[in-house]
Every structure is written in structure tokens, then in C-alpha cells.
Amino acid sequence: MRAIALVVVICLITAPTVQGDDPRPIRIVESPGAGSRTAATNADGSMTFCKYPAGRPVAPDPAPPFGPLALITFPETEPNGSTVTANPLPLGTGMGEDIDVDVTGDISPANETDAFRVTLKKGDIIGAATITAAGGPDTVLAVFDSMGSQIFSNNNHGGLNTIYPPGSPWPNATRSTDSAMTFIAPADDDFFFAVASSGGATSGNYTLRMRLRRAQIETVFPTPVRQILFIDFDGATINANALFGEGRTSATMSPLSDFLAGWGLGPADEDAVIDAILDRLDHIFDDLRDAALNGDFPVDMMVGHYDIEIRNSRDHPDPFGQANVSRVIVGGTISETGISTIGIAEFIDPGNVSTDDTAIVLLDLLSAGAGNPNSVLSLQRDASLSLIDAIGKVVGNVTAHEAGHFLGCWHTRNSNATACIMDQGGDLENLAGVGNDGILGTMDDPDNAFTVDEFESTEGVGFGNESTNVVVAFGLSTGGLAADNMKPGIDSIDPATGANIGALASVTVTFDEDVAGLQAARLTVNGSPAVNLSGSGAGPFIFSGFAPPADGTVTVVLNDMGVTDLSGNTFITDMWTYAKADCNNNGVFDATDVSSNTSEDCNGNSVPDECDADPVTAAAGAAQTINEGESAVLGADEPASGGVPPYTIAWTLLGPGVNENFTEENPAFQFDAPGVFNAQLTVTDSLGCQATAVATVTVNALPDDNENTNENDNSNMNGGSPPCGVSCGPGMGMMTAVIGAWIVVVRRRRR
User: Fold this and answer.
1) What angle do CA 436, 439, 443 make, to 5 degrees?
2) Are 335 and 253 in contact (CB under 8 A)?
3) Shortest CA distance to 167 belongs to which of 394, 357, 449, 332?
4) Average pLDDT in the 538-560 region?
5) CA-CA to 185 of 20 to 30 Å: which in 339, 417, 574, 747?
6) What is the pLDDT of residue 61?
7) Whole-angstrom distance, CA of residue 48 vs CA of residue 65
8) 586 domain residue, yes or no
9) Residues 398 and 296 occupy one common structural domain
10) What confidence tier does 136 reach under pLDDT thresholds 50, 70, 90?
């Protein structure tokens, strides 16, 4: 709970305005002392709800560039201890300026202050650090506004550089007595950076490294992309040690749903809890839109202005891993992660240099019983405020706090009257925004926000004011200020270039930036233009309506006519091909049919057997009808063809009382009983490919002689005896008949 004093103004005193030529002395006010940035608990047992990540090894400052933007070395000149005499630095992007300046200076006598004037534009980010040699001065570094009023100072950097993300451009302080800071200009104005010795006690040489940059997204991306903040309520498995410098290497974090019971809620309340958290986040980040410190891109459409997109795991697919997506995982416990905290972020990142960071908000303490000083249940609530709304406010504030870290903010002072989202924590009422009456949900509750507040000076980062609203507003600049001379290109194609396809009804194209002038007919498939087109921005764009391509090589062309990016750079015609093979017209690439065993491939040529140009064929011949006692020759004139000879022949004859097998091409069989008989021919070629065919033989019973009324005598000229050339007799199993020019071996039915 905050103690907020009511001040009655009984007279108005107007401070004198300091003019540009007023020789106001620059005097640095130092922090009275520095403490720990890693303390976990407070005297009352409550958790200092957020801790900084453990420091990482710091790479040396990159070598100065060559050419027009080569680093400028600037010697300080005396006198330079006031707003008038401060040395103007050539730090900037104008003629004769550079974004990297190293100042060589000398503190002598020990109680002097060296001041340097820089002219900045709103949103310019300055990284500054003093570098001294062994035996050099113990420096203190400060930044002042144009009137000469100190904004904040740093005495002894305390390793803050080790918490910046890799690739951060901010200079490194080396010795423990050196100083470092980052500062974002809140307005177009002059500012002063000053160096002195701590307590005026030491003297000697120093180098002041000054680096000027803009927010990463603003200057790297030529189109107005924005930072996406993904709130993950589903739990996750992370390497906490790699992300935060401590904790488990494989930490599986429980989802939000696992903590509802701790608050006395059930599964049916989960959506309402998520809504309350998201509503709070929207409110906090919309405050920055309304303040318009960096404009509001959706309203003014000015590239570089503020914007953010908040997504969540309930309503959106997980985009983490894509460009410009940072996440806060809401769930998990101290035990699961191995980190004693409620919240922790991967980096402190002035300028949002790393746009794919991770933070976590643990829920075990926040959902603990009412006796726990860290639990939402311990807060006294007004009857008008539901428990779910209280959870939404507390968890939403912590989530915004952790996001504030990877957008560049340090902790602010918890014990003053300013309700800042970045307050250090350890006081749940302060975190929740409880007013003087000690009851959450009443009229005196402050609205925690990103605002101007005092640094938490005990952490050794800064002594003075931190404009967390400015830091976040410019950390969330949109892209578009980078010079765009790049032609738009294709980022991805579906089906992928060179794919094997069985059918092609549509082609999906995604560009690497937003495009204009795209029409369906710009894409052709084997010369056939697309008719339909859907999509916008960079895509994905879906082209359809072209003529279905035939089997073979399919050539797709995306023509450049009239297609540009938003800066007018013209797209260059692109072309790619597919291999289409779908002989059986099932919409699946033939080789896939084979590999999935949905089609046979007896000859191993990756073509379904039914699609082979000359498959092996079996011809069992036409159906036959004969009389009892007669014989039939099975098979066509050419019973086997196609495939790869030689062939293996296998006949199976089945019927009433008959089960015979033959290996001849055209076997003959005498049928001694009536019935319907099926003769199946199986042909196997030399590759093992098979074909089958079936012929039917119908055998009619002979009429009874006593009932024969047919005037025509059907017996042969030998009175029913076997014809000439046929040898037969009782007990003979084989007989040979001469039929025309054929000699046929006839097998009689076995008895």
C-alpha cells in the first residue's frame, strides 16, 4: 500500500528559465550506495517478485567500422563544466557526424566535471560507458536535460552489460569502478552527458564511449512490421538455465489451468481468468497508444511509430520462433523451473535489439493459500471486484512487468507514491495497485502503468528518473524507417519448388514483404493463367483456377508485371517446376502410391502396376459350352503377353468333383460330368509380375436315349464308336485325338 500525501498549493513560485547561454554548472548527484540486483525475498517473507537474469560473458566491443561511418575519436577540451562550455560531440547522422564516438578525457583536478553536449531526436537511444585503465579514476556518469537538470547517474556499472542480449550495440564498461548507462531521448532536444570522479576523490584519464542507435525493428525492417507479444497459458518445456542463467536445463512448466483450484476456481472459469489477464495487458499497452509518446501507427500510419500485437495460446497458434515474436509463459512453479521468483525475463534490452525473447510468470505463489503474503487470496477486496478480476490485474501487471524488461526497462522504486509497472516488487498490494484504504477495487486505487519513476537505486543501475513509458514506446517502434532498396522476393511456395505431385489445384505463394499489384493471371501453370486469387499483405496468396496440368514437368511462372513492394521496388519474374505423375488419376503422386502400399509395383519401377505401359497379361480364352464326355481346350491362342518373358503358366480348374492344375499354355480336359467349371490362368513373368484371367466351361448332361425325340441322329458315322485316329478303351487315362491340324492331349477325369 502506498502512502500518498495530499499537498495544498498556497502559492505559486515560478522557477527562472535557464536560457541556452546561461553558464549553469554541471554537477553530478551520485547514488548513496548500491545493493544487490538478485535478492529473492524480503524481511516479511514475501517474494521480490521479479529478479534479473544471471549475467552472461560479455563479448568485446566490436571493432570500429571503416569508411564514411568510421568511429570518430574526440578529445575533450577545457573548460567544459557547464551547459555553455560543454563540448559539443559530433554524434549523429549528419555531415561530419557518426553514430559511434569515443571521447578521450582527463579528470584533473579530481573534483572537476567534464560535460558533453549531444543533439538528439526523439527516440534516439544512447549507450554510454566510461573505460579506464588500472590506476585510473573511479568514474561516475550522468545525463542531463537541456536545462542542466540531472536525469539520472550511474556509479559502478555492476555488470549490467552482462544482462543485455548478444549483439547489443551498447558499449561495455570493464573495470568495476567504470560506469555505464542507456538513455532514450523523450523529445528532440539537447542533452548533456557528464563524467566525474566518484566523490571527487580520484583523477586520471578515461575514454567515454558513446553509441547512438534507433530501435531495432524501426531501423532494420523497411516495412511497418511490429513486435508480437505472445502470452502462453498452455505451459511449456524450456531450458531455464540457458534462458535465465539459472534453473533447470529441462523445465516443464504447468499450464494456467493447473492453478485454478488454488484460487478456488474450476475449469469453467479458465476462459474468464484468461480474459481478465488479457484485458489488463491491453489496458496497459493501450495507455501508451493514448499517450502518443511515439505516436500510434494504426491511427496515424506513420512508419516508426508505436504498435504491438498481443496474441495468446487460447485464441492463436503458437508463433514463437517466427520473426519479431517474444513470449511470456504464464504458468509453472519454482520447483519446476528451479528459480526462486515469481517472474524473470531473459534480457534487459534497451532498444528491443532482440525481438524473440522469453519471460516467465510463475503461478505457485500467486495461487497459494490466503495466508501466503504472495497470494492473490491474501488481498482484501472490495465486494465490487471479483476474484477473477483481481487475478487478472495482478497476473496482468506481472506479465507486463516482465515484458517491460525485454523491451528495455530496469526496476523502479517500490516505496514511493508512483504506481509504475516496473516497480521492483515484494509488496503484493503495490503490485496489485491497492490504494491508501488497503482494499483492492476502491476509488483510491492507483492505475499501475509504464510511467516516469525513480530507478531502484539500491540495484546500482541508476540514480534518478527512468522514463519507462518512453523506453517501451520506442522499443515498440514499427519498421519502415530503413531505406528500402530491396526488391520483393518470394519467401515460400507450396507445393515447394521441385516437389513431386499427383495433382495441382492451387499454388500458394508468400512474399518476404507486403506487395501491391498482384493479380491472379500473373501466375501461369504450363501456360494456363490462374483465375482466382486470395490473400493480402505479404500473403500467403492462393492462386487457383488454372487448367490441371498433365503428367510430366509442370512449369509455374509468376510474372513481374505491375507487382511491387510498398516502396515501389519491382518484383522480378520467378519460375519453378514440379514433377507430376498420376497415371491412375487418384490425385496422389505415383511413387507415393507405391511407397504407401496403396498400389502394387511388381517390377520396382516406382509406377503402379496398373500404369505400366506394357503390363503382363493373362488370356484365359472365351467361355465354352460342351456336352458331358467331351473335352475342352483352355486358353486363348496367346495366353501370356506383355511384361518381360519368359513366363510361368499355372492353371487351376475347379468345379463339381474337379480340382486340377496344369502348367501347359493350352491344356485340354475331358469333362465326364455336367456342371459349371472355372478355369483360372495365372501368368508370372521373369520379374515376378503376375496377371490372372478366368474362363468358364459349362458342361451339359447328355439326354437319356429313351427320351431322345430328336429326329436328327447326333451319333457319329461309326455308330457312336470313337472316330478314326482316337485310341481309347476301358481303364485308359489318356487319349489322343487329332482335331484339324492340332494334336491335343486330353486328360480324362480321374475316377
Assistant:
1) 70
2) no
3) 357
4) 92
5) 417
6) 58
7) 43
8) no
9) yes
10) very high
Same domain (yes/no): 554, 447: no
Which is more confident, 499 or 600? Answer: 499
| Residue 684 within any structural domain of the chain | yes
Among positive and negative, which fits the CA dihedral 196, 202, 206, 212? negative
Conformational region of residue 408, where left means phi above 0, alpha means psi within -120 to 50, and beta covers everything else: left
| 656: preceding bond cis by omega (within 30 degrees) | no
Angle, alpha carbons 512-513-516 (nearest 5°): 125
In angstroms, the Cα distances linking 675 to 164, 654, 697, 699 are 94, 11, 8, 5
Residue 740 makes CB contacts below 8 A (sequence gap 6+) with none
Contact between 512 and 489 under an 8 Å Cβ cutoff? The reply is yes
Residue 506 belongs to some domain of the structure: yes
Rounded to an integer, the average pLDDT of 697-721 is 58
Together in a domain, 66 and 114 = yes
511: helix, strand or coil: strand
Bond before 255 cis per omega within 30 degrees: no
Residue pointed to by grid coordinates 497458434 = 317
pLDDT tens profile 28-75: 998 775 444 444 445 455 555 788 888 766 555 555 444 334 467 889
CATH number for position 673? 2.60.40.10
Q: Residue 747 and residue 738: Cα distance in Å, rounded?
A: 14
pLDDT of residue 482: 66
Burial class of 726 by CB neighbour count within 10 A (0 to 12, 13 to 18, 19+): middle
Peptide bond into 646 cis (omega under 30): yes
Tell me which of 298-307, 354-363, 595-604, 634-643 is least confident: 595-604
Identify the three-state secondary structure at position 467.
strand
| Grid cell locating 640 | 501370356
**CA-CA distance, 627 to 635, in Å (whole number)?**
19
Q: What is the pLDDT of residue 16?
A: 33
State the amino acid at position 233 in one-letter form.
F
Average per-residue pLDDT for the chain: 85
* Type of residue found at 641: S
pLDDT of amino acid 750: 36
- Cα gap 27→253, rounded to integer Å: 50
Query: Residues 502, 455: one domain?
Result: no
Domain count, the chain: 4
User: Model's pTM, two decimal places?
Assistant: 0.64
Residues 583, 567: Cα–Cα separation, whole Å: 46
Find all residues with CB under 8 Å of 125, minimum gap 6, and list them: 182, 183, 184, 185, 212, 213, 214, 215, 350, 351, 474
Same domain for 550 and 420? no
Alpha carbons 154 and 699: distance in angstroms, whole number: 112
Judge whether 679 and 695 are in contact, CB under 8 Å: yes
Q: Which domain holds residue 669?
A: 617-703
Instruction: Tell me: pLDDT of 221 over 50.
Output: yes
Predicted pLDDT at 326: 98
Domain final position from 149, 181, 213? 213
- Backbone Cα Rg of the chain: 44
Pair (471, 497) in one structural domain: no
Residue 360 has pLDDT above 70, yes or no: yes
Which grid cell sits at 322? Answer: 517466427
Q: Residue 729 has what pLDDT?
A: 34
The predicted-structure confidence for 12-39, as pLDDT tens digits, reads as follows 222 333 334 456 899 999 877 544 444 4
pLDDT band at 2 (very low <50, low <70, confident <90, very high): very low
Residue 396 in domain: yes
Which residues have C-beta within 8 Å of that of residue 611, sequence separation ≥ 6? 583, 584, 590
- The residue-averaged pLDDT of 250-259 equals 98
Average pLDDT over residues 240-245: 95
Which helix (H) or strand (E) covers residue 203, if one does? none
Contacting residues for 382 by C-beta, under 8 A, at least 6 apart: 439, 440, 441, 442
Cell numbers for 412: 523502479
Is there a single domain that holds both residue 458 and residue 495? no
Q: Categorize the per-residue pLDDT at 577 as very low, low, confident or very high, splitting at 50, 70 and 90.
A: very high
